[in-house]
Design goal:
Elements: H1 2-11, H2 18-25, H3 29-35, H4 39-58, H5 68-81, H6 83-91, H7 98-122, H8 131-153, H9 162-177
Helix pairs in contact: 1-2, 1-4, 1-6, 2-3, 4-6, 5-6, 5-9, 6-8, 7-8, 8-9
C-alpha cells in the first residue's frame, strides 16, 4: 500500500499505471492485480490509508484529543513531513473518480463535525450545529483544505512553514465562530 501511496502521491490516478506501482513494490503487476481488481480500487485504498493518518491526527470519530489549533498544526506538520501523502490527499483525490468525489465529500463532512467538537474548547462560546453554523463550518473546512492544497502544490505560500500556515488557518476558523467583541482561545 505504501508504494501505491508514493506513486499516486507523485503523479495522481490518471498518470500512473499498475505496472509502475508494481515496479515500486518490486513485484509483478499480476501480484498487484491479485489484491486489487483495478487501479481505481487501489487508488481508493491508498486514499483510505492517507485518510487514516488524518483521522489519527484529528481524533477521528472519537473525542477530540486536542484543541483546534493543535489539530490544525498537526495536520500541516504531517503534510510537511509527508509530501507524497499530502499530495494524494489534497492534490489528486477530490475529483479523481465519481466514487472518490463522494468519498471526499464524506471526508469534508466528517471534518465539519469535528470542527463542532473542537470548537467548545477553542472559542468563547459553544457553537450550535444549526444549518447556518454547519454552512459556515463547511466553508471554513473547505477554505482550510484549499489553503493546504495551494501550499502543498506550491501554487501559493511558497516558503511558508507549516506552523505559520497552521496558525493562520486556526485563527481564521476561530474568528468564524467567535462572537464579535470576544476573542477565541489561543
Amino acid at each position: 500500500m505504501e508504494a501505491a501511496v508514493r506513486v499516486f502521491g507523485r503523479r495522481g490516478l490518471s498518470a500512473v499505471t499498475m505496472d509502475e506501482i508494481a515496479a515500486e513494490c518490486g513485484v509483478a503487476p499480476s501480484a498487484v492485480y491479485y489484491h486489487f481488481s483495478s487501479k481505481d480500487e487501489l487508488f481508493h485504498a491508498a486514499f483510505d490509508a492517507v485518510r487514516d493518518d488524518i483521522q489519527t491526527i484529528t481524533g477521528g470519530d472519537g473525542s477530540p484529543t486536542a484543541t483546534l489549533r493543535q489539530v490544525v498544526t498537526g495536520v500541516f506538520r504531517w503534510a510537511q513531513e509527508h509530501p507524497e501523502r499530502a499530495n494524494l490527499l489534497w492534490v489528486y483525490s477530490a475529483g479523481a473518480t465519481p466514487a472518490m468525489a463522494e468519498t471526499w465529500e464524506s471526508f469534508i463532512d466528517g471534518h465539519v463535525d469535528n470542527l463542532f467538537r473542537y470548537a467548545p474548547d477553542t472559542v468563547a462560546r459553544p457553537i450550535r450545529a444549526d444549518e447556518l453554523s454547519r454552512r459556515a463550518a463547511r466553508a471554513g473546512v473547505v477554505a482550510g483544505n484549499t489553503i493546504a492544497l495551494d501550499w502543498i502544490s506550491g501554487r501559493r505560500f511558497a516558503g511558508v512553514d507549516a506552523d505559520r500556515l497552521a496558525e493562520s488557518v486556526a485563527s481564521m476558523l476561530e474568528r468564524m465562530f467567535t462572537p464579535p467583541g470576544q476573542s477565541g482561545a489561543t
